[in-house]
Design a protein that fits this description.
By secondary structure, the protein is mainly alpha-helical. It has a domain of 40 residues. Helices cover 70% and strands 4% of the residues. The longest helix has 50 residues. It is rod-shaped. Keywords: Coiled coil.
């Protein structure tokens, strides 16, 4: 470890930090934090993960609810459009309206 600290850096590279030297000499171990031991997970990191996960799940639920509402509104619009078209077709067959419509078009 002392040899790596005393070794001059390779040209064009930064000298190794103390942490990098430790990893080089001792190797990297999963779930080990230097000075704190095995199994230590930073509280702030785990809290940030949990917070982000909860926030993500909330956004996901909101998106699903919005999608459901939009689908329902689209179905309502399609139903109303079909009813409106049916009423227009019925009105087109009324003789009194046909004469009014034709006289209105001839005056244009």
């Amino acid at each position: 470890m002392l040899e790596l600290q005393d070794t001059p850096p390779v040209e064009g590279k930064k000298p190794m930090t103390e942490d990098e030297i430790c990893v080089e000499v001792l190797g990297k171990r999963r779930n080990y934090t230097r000075g704190l031991g095995n199994g230590f997970i930073s509280t702030s990191r785990s809290l940030a993960y949990n917070s982000n996960n909860v926030e993500f799940e909330e956004y996901k639920r909101n998106a699903e609810e919005t999608k459901r509402q939009l689908t329902e509104q689209l179905e309502n619009l399609n139903t109303r459009q079909a009813k409106t078209e049916a009423l227009l077709a019925q009105l087109a067959n009324v003789p009194a309206l046909q004469s009014i419509l034709s006289s209105g078009e001839s005056s244009r």
